[in-house]
Specification:
By secondary structure, the chain is of the alpha/beta class. The chain has 2 domains: about 1-230, P-loop containing nucleotide triphosphate hydrolases (Rossmann fold, 3-Layer(aba) Sandwich); about 305-480, 2-Layer Sandwich (Nucleotidyltransferase, domain 5), CATH 3.30.420.240. It has 18 helices and 15 strands. The protein has helices at about 1-5, 15-25, 25-30, 50-60, 75-90, 100-110, 115-120, 175-180, 205-215, 235-250, 250-255, 260-265, 275-280, 350-365, 380-390, 410-425, 430-440, 455-480, and strands at about 35, 40-45, 65-70, 95-100, 130-135, 135-140, 145-150, 160-165, 190-195, 220-225, 305, 315-320, 330-335, 340-350, 370-375. Helix 2 (about 15-25) packs across helix 3 (about 25-30), helix 14 (about 350-365) crosses helix 15 and helix 16 (about 410-425) crosses helix 18.
Length: about 500
């Protein structure tokens, strides 16, 4: 970290050096902290990379930080270095370290990590004495203390800093959050740090990260790709790619361990999935939702990526559910048939009549969009409400009746159409939960894995079918010449 050091005045004595360290966690870590290097089999100075400096600055400036990363980027060491800085330069700091199992958390606290870093500091930087410690507790004479916990404990403290290591691998993270997060509500900091667990695309960690990235919660998101480590180059990455692909037949492990972008890390496993990951990724365009104008329909949970455009035509895909707390979500997806762009989406515990009313409001806003609704089960109630109360055009499915029958044949046709649209780049996808669900659809069962959701995926696929139907019909209608005196037709 030569660049950072050169910008600071040279330290001529311990007092001055202490003041400089107190002002900058990055300077402290880069100049005085050692970490254990498994390759060298020795403790070496922790020389920070640019990505680590940026991450440390973000941690210092924010109360809540969620970090998604590739493997072997030194982020656990970095977070422990920040914890050590707090314990030394913010006396009476309380640090709580959580990991999946007790032995892992005590390892992070012990001589192999945090205490080992402390022991290698300059003598003048340490407290005069260390309070006797146990495996799960380490205290300094200045009043600072660090405690190690498995993810099932630790809710009875007020903390200055909480670190949850490998958070996406913690299957009860939501339970831990309910107990650990209140410990820092008085002004402490909390970090969720992890690589991705691709087996759980809808995990609590991923939901927090996605919401943080969209600015929907109080967390600050950080993503560090494989290339954040300076010595890794294109040749190294190509070697990893070839090795993993030839061993596993897919790139899922590469995207889990060494992602280039967070969309790779967050996406579900692709092996045996109906829609190939490269097809989805080529249609993915990251975009923040829009602020809704006053004329927009007042629909709780509505996410809009593009406002209605004059001269454009739109379709809605609808996947109804029962609407009680234990049922699946109901979902709506709106596509622009001129561009294939996903312009709006809605999902939630909505009863059939509520979903129908929202579809009607949304459809009228998008220039009287046509709607394709699943006809199974609760879809009958939605279609009946639309027939009685709405002027929206209800499209017919593969069997010639209003709505889409999700029989085995219907499901096959539905996801054939969706796959073709992604393969041919006929659609533009913005909503990441929809991306995740589409990426999860099993190739043989044509549904999400057990315990995962597919309501948005089904709604999007129905919107794709509706878009294809609408484009074909519009072409047919516009191809018919007008007779003398006949007014031009308005498609839709």
């Amino acid at each position: 970290m030569t660049g950072l050091v050169s910008t600071l005045p040279p330290a001529t004595d311990a007092r001055r050096e202490s003041l400089v360290c107190m002002a900058s966690p990055a300077y402290f870590v880069d100049n005085h902290v050692h970490i254990y290097d498994a390759t060298a089999r020795d403790w070496i100075p922790f020389r920070l990379w640019p990505a680590q400096i940026e991450a440390l600055d973000t941690i210092e400036q924010n109360q809540l930080t969620v970090i998604l990363k590739a493997r072997q980027l030194g982020l656990t060491w970095l977070c422990l270095g920040f914890a050590l800085w707090l314990m030394i330069f913010r006396p009476a700091a309380t640090v709580l370290i959580f990991s999946r199992r007790e032995e892992e958390s005590t390892y992070l606290l012990g001589d192999e990590r945090l205490r080992g870093m402390y022991e290698r500091l300059p003598p003048w930087m340490k407290s005069p004495s260390v309070v006797p410690d146990a495996a799960r507790t380490w205290a300094l004479a200045n009043g600072s203390v660090a405690r190690a916990f498995p993810t099932t404990a630790g809710d009875s403290y007020t903390a200055s800093f909480v670190l949850v290591d490998e958070a996406d691998l913690v299957h009860d993270l939501d339970k831990l959050m309910r107990s650990a997060k209140p410990t820092i509500d008085a002004g402490g900091k909390m970090i969720l740090l992890s690589r991705s667990d691709k087996g759980r695309p809808e995990s609590e960690f991923k939901r927090i990260y996605r919401a943080a990235k969209a600015g929907l919660n109080g967390w600050r998101s950080i993503f560090l790709p494989w290339s954040a480590r300076p010595e890794r180059d294109a040749g190294w990455y190509e070697s990893q790619t070839k090795d993993i692909f030839h061993r596993t037949g897919a790139l899922d492990d590469l995207h889990e361990l060494y992602p280039s972008a967070d969309v790779e890390a967050l996406a579900p496993r692709t092996l045996d999935k109906r829609i190939a990951a490269p097809w989805l990724q080529q249609c993915w365009v990251e975009q923040a939702p829009l602020s809704l104008p006053p004329e927009a329909p007042s629909i709780p949970g509505l996410t809009v990526y593009a406002l209605p455009r004059p001269g454009h035509w739109y379709v809605i895909g609808a996947d109804p559910a029962e609407g009680n707390p234990n049922s699946n979500d109901s979902a709506l997806e709106v596509l622009d048939i001129d561009t294939g762009e996903e312009v709006a989406t809605l999902a939630g515990k909505l009863q059939p009549t509520a979903l129908a009313s929202y579809a009607d409001q949304l459809g009228r806003w998008y220039w009287n969009a046509a709607i394709m609704c699943e006809r199974n089960n609760h879809g009958h109630a939605v279609l009946a409400w639309l027939e009685e109360h709405s002027s929206l055009r209800r499209l017919r499915g593969h069997d010639g009746n209003p709505g889409w029958l999700s029989s085995p044949l219907g499901k096959t046709k539905l996801y054939d159409a969706a796959s073709d649209a992604f393969r041919n780049r006929e659609v533009i996808l913005h909503h990441f939960p929809t991306f995740t669900q589409l990426a999860s659809i099993d190739g043989s069962m044509l549904r999400a894995p057990e315990g995962e959701s597919d309501d948005l995926a089904d709604a999007f696929a129905m919107a794709v079918v509706a878009m294809t139907h609408a484009r074909r019909q519009r072409e047919d209608e516009l191809a018919v010449p007008l007779t003398w005196g006949q007014r031009p037709r308005q498609v839709w």
